[in-house]
């Protein structure tokens, strides 16, 4: 299962019904995982179960973690769930690009950097084509 990057003119119309849709490839899954789990510290259910001694459920922990992350990186957090589509209309491309550039100054791991550079390339193509991006979980 992958997360495909699709360039579209209009995110409100199904991509397969649009004339100038372009598939930019598949998201670097290892890099995405590195960003969210290593850089941002979001634990898997197994890691959480092994370390948590409180009464908070994993879903509560995850919702709190994502909510906190959303306040700082509202654009990039849309990609946290590998099994859900993420949509970036044209007007969100520049804010997404700004977040990526900001993250690239503080990210430590090469895998995370590769993922962010892949996203940066996708935003450049979207900007060049005056288009939005949809990340499709297939």
Number of helical stretches of at least 4 residues: 5
What's the assembly state of these chains?
single chain
> What is the global morphology?
globular
Residue-averaged pLDDT: 92
Task: Estimate the strand proportion.
Answer: 5-15%
Q: Rounded to an integer, what's the Rg over CA atoms?
A: 16 Å
> Which regions are unreliable across 5 or more consecutive residues at pLDDT < 50?
none
- Measured as a percent range, the helix fraction is 40-55%
First-to-last CA distance: 6 Å
Task: Give the strand tally.
Answer: 4
- How do the helices and strands follow one another from N- to C-terminus? EEHHHEHHE
Indicate the structural class. alpha+beta
**Strand line-up across the major sheet:** 2-1-4-3
Characterize the biggest β-sheet. 4 strands, antiparallel
Provide an overview of this structure.
This protein has 138 residues and is of the alpha+beta class. Helix content is 49%, strand content 14%. The chain has helices spanning 29-39, 45-51, 58-72, 90-104, 110-128, and strands at 3-8, 22-26, 86-88, 132-137. The protein has a 4-stranded antiparallel sheet with strand order 2-1-4-3. The protein is globular.
């Amino acid at each position: 299962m992958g997360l495909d990057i699709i360039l579209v003119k209009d995110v409100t119309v199904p991509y397969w019904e649009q004339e100038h849709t372009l598939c930019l490839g598949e998201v670097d899954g290892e890099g995405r995982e590195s960003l969210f789990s290593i850089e941002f510290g979001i634990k898997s259910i197994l890691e959480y179960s092994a370390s948590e001694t409180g009464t908070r459920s994993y879903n509560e922990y995850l919702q709190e973690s994502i909510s906190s992350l959303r306040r700082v990186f509202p654009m990039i957090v849309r990609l946290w769930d590998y099994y859900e589509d993420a949509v970036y209309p044209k007007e969100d491309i520049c804010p997404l690009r700004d977040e990526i550039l900001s993250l690239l100054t503080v990210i430590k791991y090469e895998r995370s950097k590769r993922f962010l550079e892949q996203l940066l390339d996708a935003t450049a193509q979207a900007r060049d084509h005056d288009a939005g991006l949809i990340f499709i979980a297939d």
